[in-house]
Fold:
Amino acid sequence: MNIPKVFAALSLVVPLLAAAAEITWDELIDVSDAALREAQRVLIEEHQAGRYERFDITGRNSEIVLSTGGEPGLVGKVVYVGSFSLRSNTWLWGWADKGVPQHLSQPLSIVREVGQSQGFKQLTTRRWQGDTGDAQNMVAIAHWLLDGKGMYRAPDDEGQLLRYWVITDIHPAKP
Structure:
């Protein structure tokens, strides 16, 4: 175990957990939505993420690569948050998705912990009925608790399932 890395991770997580410990559901949605909106602004304006043609995720190492013409421009790390089915109008947390390797959603344990400590069932129930706004709220909450740098949403080939990822690190690709 790398003790300095553990302490560094805890120094980021503890203030977020402390803030979440005394927050209502509506406040949690408001603060997390504001944080996600600002992160998306930075991702698009400062990192210029919108100029890339492709966003590819490699599940093996939880990496996202933004590229144009096969040339990587930005690379980063991602956490698989979950999916929303437009067919059944249901949210499925990444940690409950049997079709996704566990390591991609393992960091979501903090989301479940906050849900359990606060009684927020939406954060602890594997699958539940909702709408795309609810899905966006789950992503925003995960983003805030994971100190995310942005999010990525990808539809399946039929356009009936939306998969959501939180970007936890993003930087220019090495030449």
Q: What stands out?
A: DSSP finds four helices and seven strands in the chain.
